[in-house]
Design brief:
about 80 residues; mainly alpha; two-stranded antiparallel sheet; 2 strands; about 40% helix
Length: about 80
């Protein structure tokens, strides 16, 4: 069996993007964690993942394509008002 260090890293298939952590999303938009939490409350798409172990901490991931679409929709709603 090959060692983990011997495995060759392959690139993701075309069009497939990894889910972002909350910190990565904060960095991408240049906002605070409070802002992201407010966006979630307002309906921004978020993937809630199950956790293992004794800690019952919620793990959130964000699909950047879905978040961008949600942001564009929010901008349209704001300009239509």
């Amino acid at each position: 069996m090959p060692k983990k260090s011997d495995r060759r890293a392959e690139s993701l298939p075309a069009g497939l993007l990894p889910l972002l952590t909350q910190r990565e999303l904060e960095t991408y938009y240049g906002v605070s964690d409070w802002t992201v939490l407010q966006w979630i409350e307002q309906g921004m798409p978020v993937e809630r993942l199950k956790t293992t172990g004794q800690q019952k901490k919620e793990v959130r991931r964000f699909d950047l394509t879905e978040v961008k679409a949600w942001m564009a929709e929010q901008d349209q709603l704001a300009t239509a008002s």
